[in-house]
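Input sequence (411 aa), recorded before submission:
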Amino acid sequence: MSIDQFAAHVGLDWADKKHDVCIQFRNGERRFEVIQHTPESLDTWLNTLHKQVNGRIAVALELKKGPIVYALQKYPFITVFPVHALSLARYRQAFSPSGAKDDPQDAELALDLMLRYPEKIKPIEPSTGELRLLQQLFEQRRLLVEDKRRFVNRLINTLKQYYPQPLEWFSHRDSGLFLDLIAKWPSLQLLKRARANTIRRFLNSKGGPAVKHTESRIEHIRNALPLTTDQYVIEANMLLAVTQVKQIKLVVESIKVYDVRIDELFKTLPDADIFKSLPGIGPCMGPRMLAALGDNRNRFNCAEEIQNYAGIAPVTERSGQKSWVHWRWQCSKFVRQTFVEWAAKTVHTSYWAGIYYQGQRSKGKSHQSAVRALAFKWIRIIYRCWKTKCCYDEAKYLKALKERDSPLLKT
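Predicted structure, token format:
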């Protein structure tokens, strides 16, 4: 997108209460203003500026999403150019070695970056409404998963204070059986009062693989000794443990609601079949990968851009005679985790992926390093399928490897 097609260019330094802006008009004149962060103030300012310049407006700011971005995207004559926060900080440091910082100055620096490096700062091109919904659902689900992890860690710490035995009996501390046990018998004293048949029926009520551990758990309960007999310590921690169990159960149920909605939405998207065709993708990884790539085919021009975006491509630093390689720090950790976790699954579901993984391991690489190298290879295939809107075909890819006389198939 040419930066010259806009009637005005704006640099915006956002804040919770107000926004500092630097406006540059076509004649080169610059003007500084302060806008209050209310829908009414933003609407008045944007419409007044639009009437004044009589054309489209480019706005540069440090965000890709958030309230101010959503507010700006409401107007068809606004195009948002996100500036990386680290780039802006280093740009500011280049002109202010003393460390001086001011909001109007940051707005002007964001404006300068957009004008001077238009090939580096690309505008936000919104995806379809359904895909934006899918992306937000995954972001919110991720927050719930982090909440569950935090609550489980708190419950583990609470049980260690007075009732550590269940932590030894159960390896999955967020399972329904474990949580129900704590809720029903929140102390060892209460658990030991229950009859063995009552405990047996309870442990077998969920079914599944846990049933085979029932008798050993009953034996451990019979021989268990309390960590403390201080009733005041036990009562306080019992109350906290039961409360934390309720919190975990509520978050788990909320995650299930998100999973159902994500699955329903994923099935309606036109690109769903592309990701369903990938080996070992499963009901979770497919929507996650689609949300990571989006449906805008112009977003990435080559597979390398996806590898960099996902943090899979390594970074090389050279200085004089020294050179070292490290993994990419500035990237979406959730997107990188998505590609790496899925690549690990393909080791057992894709013929060539299993061979490649074993080849990496035979070179002395660790499991994680081998899986990242495999993800690097997979991204090239995914990019091709995504760009051409074609489903993945393992047999077709193996045939192509054979025709190219790939050394991979000679292993």
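Checked by second reader. Strands lie at 8-13, 18-25, 30-36, 57-61, 78-82, 315-319, 322-326.
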